[in-house]
Write a structure and sequence with these properties.
Helix content: 25-40%
Distance between the termini: 59 Å
Radius of gyration: 20 Å
Structural class: alpha/beta
Order of helices and strands: HEEEEHHEHEHEEHE
Number of helices: 6
Strand content: 15-25%
Strand order of the largest sheet: 3-2-6-5-4-7-8-1-9
Number of strands: 9
Largest sheet: 9 strands, mixed
Length: about 240
């Protein structure tokens, strides 16, 4: 160990007292994060009127198709394309870190949420890189002005969307340091319009909620579709969006 710094060595009782003092601050931080997430669930919605186009592993896809039938879409703009460090073998270092820390997608699917990546690279390059790195998330090719229109032409970020039938709304956007909780299941859900959908959350009246963790299963126990049983409508939350 480097001898330039050495922490104070204390008795077990002193250590526990110090831990409890710090734990109180940890709990304050948790409550602050919960309050911020509650404000996200009250954000106005912005209707997406343009029909954006992507290439995917199954051919041409609309933004609506990226939901895969679910209610939420978290779409991360990763930098993997000519001119980016690592091309053509790898995405940028930071985007690769993001991809590495994405949790098993079945847990997000159980909360009616799809997480997908998008880049400018052609599909053959994306599929080759995903196989090399062992990544399983859907990854699309941007073919139009989506990245410029949604603030991710020059810097990474995640756009959160919700759909009501075939209507799509942008509900939130994060990048830079605020993006660090993304990837973990619960942290990712906190950025969606409906949140974790648990009954302890401070959400507007009418939002879907179940008892805490009652939806949670092992990732191989959710069933074959991974889709929610309820229809993808948001009539109970109509007050939240602005057309």
């Amino acid at each position: 160990m480097n001898n330039t710094y050495r922490a104070q060595v204390v008795t077990p009782a002193e250590w526990e007292a110090a831990r409890l003092r710090l734990l109180a601050k940890e709990q304050d931080l948790t409550r602050a994060r919960e309050a911020l997430a509650a404000q996200r669930r009250r954000m106005p919605w912005l209707k997406v009127d343009q029909e954006y186009s992507f290439d995917g592993p199954n051919g041409a896809a609309r933004l609506l198709d990226l939901f895969e039938g679910r209610r939420h879409l978290l779409l991360y703009r990763a930098f993997f394309e000519p001119g980016v460090d690592g091309w053509p073998d790898h995405a940028c270092v930071g985007c690769s870190l993001m991809a590495d820390q994405v949790a098993h997608l079945a847990h997000l699917h159980a909360r009616d949420t799809t997480l997908a990546f998008a880049s400018r690279a052609p599909q053959p390059d994306i599929e080759r890189m995903k196989a090399l790195m062992g990544w399983a998330m859907p990854w699309y090719t941007i073919t139009d002005s989506f990245d410029a229109d949604f603030g991710v032409a020059e810097w990474y970020g995640t756009n959160a969307f919700i759909r009501d039938g075939d209507n799509i709304y942008r509900t939130y956007f994060i990048n830079d340091r605020e993006h660090e909780p993304m990837g973990a299941t619960l942290g990712s859900l906190d950025f969606t319009a409906l949140g974790r959908q648990e009954d302890w959350e401070d959400s507007p009246d009418g939002y879907p909620q179940v008892p805490r963790y009652s939806w949670l299963k092992r990732h191989d126990e959710y069933g074959p579709t991974g889709r929610a049983a309820h229809p993808a409508t948001t009539e109970s939350a109509d007050h939240a969006h602005h057309d």
